[in-house]
Amino acid sequence: MSAMDLPAKKPAASAASAVRAPAKPNTITWIALALMTTSSVASLRAAPTMAVYGLACVFLYVVPAIIFLLPTSLVSAELASGWNGGVYRWVALGLSKPLGFLAVWCQFAMTIFYYPSLLGYVASTLAYVFNPALASSGLWTAVVIMVCYWSGVFISSRGTQGVAGLASAGLIIGTLIPGALLILLCAIFLGQGNPSAAPMTASHLLPAWTGLASLVLIVNNFLSYSGMEMNAVHVSKLKNPAKEFPKSMFFAMGLVLVIFILPALAISWVVPAEQLSLTAGVMQAFDAVFAHFSIQWLTPLIGIALVAASLGGMLTWLAGPSRGLLLISKQEGYLPPFLQKLNKHGIQQNILVTQGVITTVIALLYAFIPDVSSAYWIFSVITTQVYLIVYLLMFVAAVGLRRKFPDHPRGYKAPMIVALCGVGFVASLAALLVGFIPPSQFASGNTAVYVAVVAGGALGLGLLVPYLFYRFRKPSWKTATASEEVAEA
Predict the structure, then answer these.
(1) Which of the two residues, 390 and 110, has the higher pLDDT score?
(2) Could you tell me what percentage of the chain is helix, strand and coil, using 3-state DSSP and rounding each to the nearest 5?
(3) Are 75 and 249 contacting, i.e. CB atoms less than 8 angstroms apart?
(4) What residue ranges do the domains of the chain occupy?
(5) How far apart (Å, rounded) are the C-alpha atoms in residues 432 and 358?
(6) Nearest 10 degrees: CA dihedral of 52, 56, 58, 63?
(7) What is the DSSP-derived secondary structure letter of residue 275?
(8) Mean pLDDT over residues 218-231, rounded?
């Protein structure tokens, strides 16, 4: 989901899995599961965000991996191996149905800000195919966001199949190959005796302390790791879940860290931090390295590859969270019938269109915010804030489920679950609070405006809107058929 880096970065498993087919007898290896998990998380989109820290990006990636990625992976493995239905079912059983609705709503709501930030990256990358100067144009960014999103809605609303294959190919075409090429060329660049743009000495392993704002960018890394829990639904297909799943997660963590850290370091070698754009940094690095080796003709090709990977991921996940919200709303009556209507292809088109209207408004903000990087960062933080609410609820629910149903069969049982959930909850809460502090890269300098925008987006969309839906719901909003009720049960 690299929200923001989210690759395209992919949202976590939603309640769309509420109606899940019976488990198949075939098994998968722990290595295969690790590769699946890596492909669902890793991307190059987050690299510029951490490249500004140079060597310190290693520290800023490893810390959230230990205190957030590990607890999330192990706890969700237990939940997924014991209960189907995704985060709504887990939170509804562990806490309450209204809080379960809040969890699945936040999974959906985060995409409202996730897609503008993702497509903002697409716009800046695509600019290098036509004219690099467009990367800093708010108008160009707004137009690309609107065109790409509505094209995705059109494709998704027609029930197009095979999009998942495009996203899988995008991992290789738009992440692994460009990432390996970037690292190789940057290593050759240094090997030729060229100085690194960022110091690479041991004294720079830790970020320079210039106040709390200098560490705010670490919040983005929580969203970079979000989605690791998505493949926990496959834990039952392992031959020995208790031993193999932790092994798979540790291996996936290593791969994800390599994909995140090495490209970020490579970018810091060739692009000075003060010149780095949070949205176009990857292409800046490619452009600079290709220019050094006189192969700039490759720049547009890399740009197209990166765009293809991001758009493939967007198409794959565009209808996922909204589908989960639809299923739960039909069963519990959380959304009005208008938003529950399906088109002739069985797609929740009204939800997608309503989401698109909001996305369009957000896209237009790019045209009015002078610094595109600042807009990108603000939307990325809002995405993280809303998504962190899901994890706060999940960690509390996991402890509740262990206490309420200690004998419920589980394919995998997380060790020291209270401690794991405690660490994950505190880390998530800390990240949520830190997100309200403007980063040092926020150019406007108006702290009040930054806090108001982030708080309004995160608290308003993440808490106020679902409360209003819940508060004014009507019995007639329950539209689930008997077969759908049985499937959920």
Answers:
(1) 390
(2) 75, 0, 25
(3) no
(4) 15-488
(5) 23
(6) -110
(7) G
(8) 69
